[in-house]
Design brief:
Elements (H helix, E strand, L loop, with lengths): L5 H12 L4 H9 L4 H16 L2 E4 L1 E6 L25 H14 L3 E6 L7 H12 L4 E5 L5 H10 L3 E3 L7 H7 L5 H13 L3 E8 L6 H14 L3 E6 L16 H14 L9 H6 L3 H6 L5 E2 L6 H6 L11 H10 L3 E2 L11
Parallel strand pairs: 1-8, 1-9, 2-3, 3-4, 4-5, 5-6, 6-7
Helix pairs in contact: 1-3, 2-9, 3-10, 5-6, 9-10
Length: about 350
């Protein structure tokens, strides 16, 4: 790494002090000359704070019904070309049990914002999965404080609620009839209730600025999020953004790497969108600060219908193990909770 320039000094400051100003973050994002320094720094911080284990989370996509109309999402309510489904309780439990038997220590139940799955209904499913001594992550969108509290009491350990952007104007454009303020409040409610709280952003949305991305990173820091997922925007043909370019892999990787510098002990996934968009994208993310992979264990019939964006990459377990060995990383054997070190 090179520490003989203002830019390298900013990267070093992020490593050592875990804080950067908005202008400093923007300066890193707008220059491509120091990307290798940034990625190396993020990898070094990752190794120091969370080690070489890569935690696997088994993803179960149990419903693609959604009340929302987010402009970028393939399962948005107004996409009439999507074949809708809701997995039954027995189907969810069967897929989860197969993943647990395979060795997964975390089950991630993800769906659209589908109120058919009430807190009480989900709670009964969660209690049955918890009997197998695994961590459970929920990703079901905005719910009331009371619902979040009930689900926490049923055994949910983590909650993933991506904010996608903290830019007020951009949020309104991308999320019709939704409130950025409410989204943030939900995240703070989750933290208050003791969840490991995850969020994240999309990179490459129409009219998104480097300043707004810098604000996203600083929000993650302010929230003290426990998990952050950063993914490049990939246009879906069934959405209003079908003709926008998106696909900004390298910028997404930089946002992820800066996030690692400022939140060194959190969990950061090498997102599926990165692998979908760029050859060996997952590997590059793992070498630039990421320490989590979320293989999709949903059965093949339902997996095809949960299309947030097209051509989602899959994970081959044996191939993954070889890939991790090639970069001297191992598959984590525990539940992979955040080990807060500062």
């Amino acid at each position: 790494m090179f520490y003989n320039s203002p830019m390298s000094n900013i990267i070093q400051k992020g490593m050592q002090n875990r804080i950067l100003s908005k202008s400093e973050i923007i300066s890193i994002l707008e220059s491509d000359n120091y990307d290798n320094d940034l990625f190396s720094a993020a990898d070094k911080v990752r190794k120091e704070f969370v080690g070489d284990a890569v935690h696997l989370r088994a993803l179960v996509e149990f419903t693609n019904f959604c009340r929302c109309n987010c402009l970028y999402c393939g399962i948005r309510a107004e996409n009439n070309d999507t074949l809708r489904y809701r997995m039954s309780e027995s189907e969810i439990l069967s897929v989860a049990k197969q993943a647990i038997d395979f060795g997964y220590k975390t089950i991630v139940l993800q769906g659209g914002e589908d109120y058919f799955f009430s807190a009480k209904y989900l709670g009964e499913i969660i209690k049955k999965i918890k009997q197998y001594d695994v961590a459970i992550t929920l990703s079901i969108g905005e719910r009331s404080f009371e619902d979040y509290a009930y689900l926490k009491n049923c055994g949910v350990d983590r909650f993933l609620l991506r904010i996608e952007t903290t830019d007020e104007d951009l949020y309104k454009k991308m999320h019709p009839n939704m409130s950025l303020e409410n989204r943030k409040q939900c995240l703070y409610n989750l933290k208050k209730l003791g969840y490991e709280t995850g969020t994240g952003c999309l990179v490459g949305l129409p009219n998104q600025t480097l300043e707004s991305l810098a604000s996203d990173i600083l929000f993650f820091k302010e929230l003290d999020a426990d998990m952050i997922g950063v993914g490049p925007f990939i246009p879906h043909p069934g959405t209003p953004l079908r003709d926008f370019k998106g696909n900004n892999f390298w910028l997404a990787l930089k946002v992820m790497a800066i996030t690692r510098l400022l939140l060194p002990d959190i969990n950061i996934p090498a997102t599926t969108a990165m692998e979908t968009l760029f050859p060996n994208g997952r590997l590059l993310a793992l070498k630039s600060g990421a320490n989590v992979i979320m293989p999709n264990v949903t059965d093949s019939i339902h997996k095809k219908m949960y299309e947030i964006y097209p051509n989602k990459a899959s994970v081959d377990y044996s191939e993954l193990k070889q890939t991790l060995n090639s970069i001297e990383r191992t598959i984590g054997t525990g539940k992979g909770f955040r080990n807060k070190k500062y």
